């Protein structure tokens, strides 16, 4: 459901009453643009569109991307961020973009990647703990946990 220029978000005033403030034209254009933007994910040679804020793991699996290496396809935490087998390298498709292409790493992501065989200094992210907000290139590496140095896709 989109906003119209006439929509007026509610704001509380100092008397605990609620009044409606109109959106400026610039606020309307920005919110409409952000709302209608469909980020693109490039992974395993495919380009996939998704909703802004979508979970990277869910989008990749839904579109048949081989996110897990070897037996990790059957032995993984199913997206709770505890195993680290969905580790991927993420790069903004447009490096000059003003907005981030993915969410900041949360505590689960940072904690799991700080434990072996991962290395916290390496530029990997857990797909299950990552939200997509802009065009993104995703790369998978070898190794059970995706921690290797050889690119798989």
Summarize the topology.
Layout: E1 10-12, E2 18-20, H1 25-36, E3 40-43, E4 46-49, E5 54-55, H2 56-62, E6 87-92, H3 107-113, E7 125-126, E8 131-132, E9 136-139
Parallel strand pairs: 3-9
Antiparallel strand pairs: 1-2, 3-4, 5-8, 6-7, 6-9
Summarize the structure.
This protein is α+β, with helices and mostly antiparallel strands and 153 residues long.
Walk me through this protein's architecture.
- The strands form 3 sheets. This protein has a 5-stranded mixed beta sheet. It has a two-stranded antiparallel ribbon with strand order 1-2.
- It is globular, with a radius of gyration of 19 Å.
- It contains 3 helices and 9 strands, in the order ββαβββαβαβββ.
- By secondary structure, the protein is of the alpha+beta class.
- Helices cover 17% and strands 20% of the residues.
Q: What spatial order of strands do you see in the largest sheet?
A: 4-3-9-6-7
The percentage of residues in β strands lies in: 15-25%
**Major sheet description:** 5 strands, mixed
Give the number of helices.
Answer: 3
Q: How many strands? A: 9
- The SSE order reads EEHEEEHEHEEE
- Output the structural class: alpha+beta
Which of globular, elongated, flat, extended, rod-shaped describes the shape? globular
Distance between the termini: 36 Å
How much is the radius of gyration in Å? 19 Å
Low-confidence stretches: 1-21, 28-32
Mean pLDDT level: 83
What proportion of the residues is helical, as a percent range? 10-25%
